[in-house]
From TrEMBL:
This is PNPLA domain-containing protein. Its main location: membrane. Residues 185-351 form the PNPLA domain. The active site is at residues 218, 338.
């Protein structure tokens, strides 16, 4: 099984990266380099590497050795790496880490096969590691799970690193998150106008803009959850259109009517439609970190949902007052309503979660401002006469429902203006004002409007340098002092050991077409850190090979201080 550290060595936009192991440290500085007597020499040398490289990636040993302890001490963020398809067993090193007073942030990273099932049971991993502040799912190419000898592993990855990195890969997302370069997609509420978001997402993918986090309100929470689950425009569009067609069913609408004490509809039919899309999936199981916004009318507060039942919190975020009853939060029983009443375009929430850039798509309704000035008093009889008299001049006056709606969205309008004027937000609003909140039957038309608008805007971004700035490393490749990030790996059950001579002596011949193409290509010189003499220049840039003898790879990253993707609890 090849080490995921090689995958992190080849991310998009992460700058110079150095991978260190205990073996190549001994090769470089001598076999006694890790002894306590040489503590100063090792610390000085590591400090030089931090000045030279954007990221120093430490691979800890599989046991609590002096090198493993060094990795923990150096860390700003510890990555616990595990196989998502295996049991969430807690290893001895993790127990030690939990008992220790390590102040570094800890993140869970779960690896998944690209041809395997979607993430599941993430909550079991997190429940057994309550000290983890967040998690990421990585879809890995097949070469990550192949068994190879160390020379062949080095030979493969020296060719992989010759190729331009894929900014859409999950390893690139991990690199952007750790270095504070995450890009968030935020989708606003607006009913059927939210179908335009599907088209904009298509244009976003065609423009080569990666998405590291997604969140939304109301219809935006629905579309965002679909995208975070699928990561594929085609499948997302199919599922979104099927749901939109169900929203146009008059039979389902009539059958859901109830005696209007709390709401006109019981919500059972709407619940069924949302559940048919997401089933029992949890928010933690989504490929891309996601959140949904609701209004907690029990506590008069905004709620940010990053865990729990996906369909329930999406439904809660879409619960318009008067139409649907509030949803009772299964965690605390609080009543949750549409998030648009408090934050219809939560770009500020994405920013607080660590996004460097937020792409915000607004599909909310535009308030009518050309209203009639009727003076100090208003007679309903006069309005009735104006409405029924075909010869009278028509007047524009808000009715009681419209006044209540505007009052409900007052704070949301002010928040929207703050977001639009912020320096971290790229604001988009497609021309969808002619479509109503319930025009779900015009899905294809609205989607196409969003796509054409997205293509135009992203083309302008490309020509004006906005995309280049968005994808650029916030600290570039400048030589500077790096902060610390460290990572641990969860243990795998002994029968499922994927590599290492003790349990898996035979090397796998299994290769992908991409790997075969790489291995057949020309060979270049490889800066193998293990082959460097002990008296080599300590400031030289080098790449090391991970130890493939243990059942798990222990990773430690040394990266600049960043805004990690720590998603707040709901």
């Amino acid at each position: 099984w090849s080490h995921p550290g090689f995958g992190i060595q080849h991310p998009a936009g992460a700058g110079p990266i150095l991978l260190l192991t205990s073996d190549n440290i001994k090769q470089r500085l001598g076999t006694a380099a890790l002894d306590s007597l040489h503590e100063y020499r090792l610390s000085s040398w590591l400090g030089q590497q931090e000045d030279v490289h954007r990221i120093v990636l430490y691979q800890a040993d599989s046991t609590l050795t002096p090198w493993t302890q060094r990795c923990i001490r150096q860390a700003d963020c510890i990555l616990i790496v595990g196989l998502g398809e295996q049991e969430p067993t807690v290893g001895e090193l993790e127990r030690m880490l939990e008992r220790s007073a390590v102040r570094a942030q800890k993140q869970l990273v779960l690896l998944h096969r690209e041809d395997g099932p979607a993430p599941a049971r993430t909550v079991d991993w997190l429940n057994m590691r309550s000290w983890c502040s967040g998690h990421l799912h990585l879809c890995c190419p097949r070469r990550i799970f192949s068994r190879r000898s160390l020379p062949k592993l080095v030979e493969l990855y020296e060719r992989v690193c010759q190729r331009p990195p894929d900014r859409h890969s999950d390893f690139s997302r991990l690199a952007r998150v750790l270095t504070g370069n995450a890009i968030a997609l935020v989708l606003g509420g607006g009913g059927a106008r939210g179908c335009a978001q599907v088209g904009i997402i298509r244009a976003l993918a065609e423009s080569g803009i990666p998405v590291d986090m997604v969140g939304g309100t109301s219809i935006g929470a629905f579309m965002g959850a679909l995208y975070a689950e699928e990561r594929n425009y085609s499948q997302m569009r199919i599922r979104a259109k099927q749901w939109a067609e169900g929203m146009t069913s008059m039979v389902k609408t009539v059958l859901d009517l109830t005696y209007p004490v709390t709401s006109v509809f019981s919500g059972a039919g709407f619940n069924s439609g949302i559940y048919s899309v997401f089933k029992d999936r949890q928010i933690e199981d989504l490929w891309i970190p996601a959140f949904a916004i609701t209004t907690d009318i029990s506590a008069s507060a905004m709620r940010v949902h990053t865990d729990g039942s996906l369909w329930r919190y999406v439904r809660a975020s879409m619960s318009l007052s008067g139409y649907m009853p509030p949803l009772c939060d299964p965690k605390d029983g609080h009543l949750l309503m549409d998030g648009g009443y408090i934050n219809n375009l939560p770009a500020d929430v994405a920013r607080s979660m660590g996004a460097k850039v937020v792409i915000a798509i607004d599909v909310g309704s535009q308030d009518e401002t050309d209203l009639t000035n009727y003076g100090d008093a208003l007679s309903g009889w006069w309005l009735l006469w104006k409405r029924w008299n075909p010869l009278a001049t028509k007047v524009k006056v808000l009715n009681m429902a419209e006044i209540q709606t505007r009052l409900a969205y007052v704070c949301c309008v002010r928040q929207l203006e703050m977001v639009r004027n912020s320096d971290y937000c790229e604001y988009l609003r497609p021309p969808i004002d002619n479509y109503g909140t319930l025009d779900f039957g015009k899905f294809d038309e609205i989607c196409e409007v969003g796509y054409q608008h997205g293509r135009t805007v992203f083309d302008i971004w490309g020509r004006s340098g906005v995309l280049e700035k968005m994808l650029q490393d916030r600290q570039g490749t400048s030589k500077m002092k790096a902060g610390d990030v460290s990572a641990w790996a969860a243990p795998s059950p002994p029968p499922r050991c994927l590599h290492g001579p003790p349990l898996c002596p035979d090397e796998s011949d299994y290769q992908t077409e991409y790997e075969e193409e790489l291995l057949d290509g020309p060979r270049d010189a490889y800066a193998d850190f293990q082959s460097a003499p002990a008296d080599a220049d300590p400031g030289s840039t080098s790449v090391s090979c991970p130890d493939t003898q243990g059942p798990w790879a222990e990773l430690a990253l040394r990266a600049p201080p960043c805004r990690p993707l720590g998603l707040p609890a709901a």
